[in-house]
Amino acid sequence: NDVSNLGLVFVALPAFLLGSGGSRLTAFMNFAKVTCFEPTVLGNGPQKFKWDEVSGLLMNPNQRRGFYTATVPSGLYIFNYDAAIMLSTGTAQHTELRQAYTSMGLAATFDVPLDNIASAVIDASSVTEAAVGSLVLPTVLTMLWGVEPPSDVMSTIAPYLTFGKLGIFGQPVCDYLLCPTGLSGKITSARVAARTWALTTPYAKQVLADPDVQQYIKRFPGADRAPDDLEYAPKHSDDGWFSWAWRRRRRSPKPKDFTKEEQHFVQNVIDLSLFAGFVGTSDLALKCITYQQQNASLQALFEEDPEAFIIEVMRADSAVTSVTALLAEDEAMILEGSNVTLAEGTPVQNVLATANRDLTHWDSPDEINPKRPNLGDSLSWNGQVRWVEAKDFTKAPRFCPGYCTSLKAGAAVCAKYMGSFDRLRAAGKIGGAPQCQNFNQDCRGEWSEWSACSASCSVGQRRRTYTITHPATGSGRACQWGEGEVQTDTCNEQLCPAQCFEEVEGTCLQLNWKLLDEKCPENILAVAQAAGSAGAVFHFYGHLMPMSDVVLESFGGDRLLINSSAATWDVETFDEFTYTEWFLVVMTGLRGITVSPSAADEPIPTKLAQMVPGYWVGPTLVPSYDVDGGALDEVQQLVIQCFGLQLRDGLTWRDDLDVAMRNKWELVMSKDKYYTAEIERVLGRPFRRMVDYVYEKFVWYMSAGVPLYPAQWDFAKLFLKNYQEIYSAPVLEGTWIFTPAVWEDAAEKFLAFNNLAAHRVFALDTPIQHGGETAVFAVTTSKFRVSAREGFGVLGADMYFSADGMPLAVSDGTTMYWKRGDGAVSEREWQYWKFVWRSSMGAVITVREHLLYAHMFMSNILATASREALGPIHPLRRFLTRWTWGTISIDNAAQGTLVGSKVITGRGLPFADFTGTVQALWDSMDNVYDTMKPLKDPSILNNTMLEQSPYYTNGSALFTLIRDMAGDFLELYREDWCKSGALDDREVLNFQRRLREVAGTMNSEALLDMPASIPDARDFGGCAGLAPLHELLSALFFGVSGWHAQVGTVAAFYLDPEFASFSWRDGEAFAPPKQHLITTGLAAATAKVTPTMIEDYSHHCKGILKESECVSLYDGHRQKLVALSAELSKVEEGDPLKYIAMNPNFVENSVSK
Length: 1153
Prior knowledge:
Keywords: Signal. The chain is an alpha+beta fold. 46% of the residues lie in helices and 9% in strands. The longest helix is centred in the C-terminal third of the chain and has 43 residues, at 827-869.
């Protein structure tokens, strides 16, 4: 070893420093060429030269390091034992240090000090390392620590540029050269002076107050292994070649107010600042200058793109020339002609300088060409620069935090020497914040202005064209729209004024429709945008942004911060739209709720609505506010509508299906932060599956004392065949191995006959035979198949079931995919098609039957007609209040954020033409009476298994109680409303008329048609007109309560992205993370607690005709509902497959969420 070390110091070192041009590149290239880029010896280990070998090491998440540089032990005169470059990747210490650096904003806090550089006096004709370094030093330290050091500190640090680079040769250089001569003291003095000064900066105090930094210091103090020289500033001596004055140090007091461990942490940051920042950036800037001076043609390339030019120069002549790593296991190789096996732990020098000139990877590697297409493959700063710049822990796990700082500082200093500083500054090509966008720029484009609208009212069309202004680079996202793509949109969506719905004294009361765009004041839109921005700051940084209390005050902003999941809103999955949706819908809309409303909170009506203005979105029309107050007042309602407008038009829509660094599970599932005891505690299980990532986002929070995302069924525990295999498997911290979910077929049986699809399952007219099995039942959605956006699977599939309810086949409407028999699909294909069916079924039910049918039709027409036709003290108005409270508020909000194009549902679902699909689903809705008729009499199903489904048994019991209550209420007022054997109450008749008018306005009047003859209709004393009204109201009342619970209880169904979601990549049996987060954010909103059927609504009877009889009626029927609830709860108790959708203690009395 002594001979080897002497050779390293007195032979290799001069070769590196005094070779051709004095360039390390020359020395390394000579080494590589001698062996044709095969390994050769350097110091105590081999060197590797090839691009693929070196790149492979740099991408390895488990790089093993040690206290080595240049294959020899490093020296404490240059680095501490726990310096970042010495820590092995993947270890807890390295991971937590990275987290601390990120949290403290290392090299990401301060801009380039352009004014300082501009005022600096330089001699451009004398370009030396020392001269360039004298400008680099204050620039780099200012960017890292926020202030420029005083001149005496910089004078002490300056020699580090000359002697610090010798530190790459480790302890042998100290033993044989630097220590005996006292020159190591100059390095130590520089390190201590820099640290002592840094500790006086405000930034250091901020850093040492950071919780992550303190946690790291507590876990890894390290100071006990630091040399004495670093605890007290030494006084070095220049007394001769072999002076031993370096052994005798004068000690000065250490800085006050900081512990030894804190000083040690700052020392390690300073060592990075000096070695990588000062020395590395000086080398970079010097080469940027000298290459241009030696070849004037390069000046234009530099001025065109300074950063790309420097990256290319660094590829050709690296500042950081090599990386030392230790072999993770024994490795056989040919070393200088001999077959040898090197032991695990042997240091290996991985040479960036030669890899960046490897002819097998680079075309014309000796040329300087910043425009080469694979420039991002350049190896520097411990990774491929495209991934270093992106700060991608997956592909560059040891990226340097100061990469962009060095690049930007070097560019500014280089420009100063080359005389192009002012031009480049004016052009915005130098300076700014220490962030780079050289390889990962998203595509940018712009739409033309909209063409003129084709119609002034009704529904017109307009067009605009997209132009790509900046194509994507590197791993940047492609533009959502193609060059020249034409987009059409509806416009002037308002009724033409000729239509008249009501006349008063000969004057037509025209509906005063207003476009939402016209009503949203600029300040409301600004609030929407500010709230969205606050959401980002709120969650990514864990505190409210300045002035955001103005926006969030009414939502309880301080309380929202408690147990925040801020650290896990990942940029790979939460784009601007998604975090805004979550912030507005999940955080403020749900977490802001402190108390769940009760029936007593429902106000007594006080006004008759006089043709309240409404908004058209697609086929739906909803009043702009509720005169009864509802859940929100008119101003709050407008704010929500304007939020919806901001979501639609203010935030870019990107599916991100084909982007390297976004919207992929592997980007987030491997992050160390999820594999912690705290995450396991809140989940109640280890972090293993995609659903754990999703549920973790909700599990921290409560809403009115109820979990923000209540999951009534744990589908994984119930039906995941490989549940135990996945959750019992050992896991390496930060390592995710995807094991596809294998679902039991019992899951589909449960969904079809006992859960979400129970109202859709039907018996086939003609059973289907295949392979000895018979398909008897089906749940179909293939008729709704429409084109999907590029990359998405097409929604729509049919499932066929046996007589005992087990799934036998899935069809896409064209091809049958059988589980068994001839042509049976593989298990993987079967799991995929089951996923397609589950997701398609859920999406159709959610959009068609929940959003459109229950919300925008049944509840909407009931609420609108009751407010416009019935006076506030009319008994029917009071009775309708319990069935319509909160409806207008929630439907108005849903219309703007769910029905409209480019908002939540449209972005989560895969439809290429969302507006057209919504219209088709609307047009397919069924007659209300016919839909609810089997609940009145399940025997008409003529199938025992269907009749015994809890949807029909429990639903029939609930429907009967609702029907009886409605009938008893009408009977109570029959004598008051009927004359001469006919319904004669003007307001009731007006209500019936307005029901059909409102439905007719939306081209859906036929959905309210009643049959000429109604079986088992009440007689009502022969009062003609009351029986049809009774049957229609019974169907509508059940529609807004029991039916709404059946089709709207989807939170558990949508929680697991491998069970069901709105969309999926074609061929994948799971949803992309971003689309699934959009889906679950919406599903969470459906889980809000609102008044249920068993509550007391008798205060609605106050002050009306027959008040006491009304109260008695309410009380009597409430007792019946409570009794039914007790009966059903007894059956449900302890049953993991319980059916809850018809239990009155679960069913809400109105559509208000």
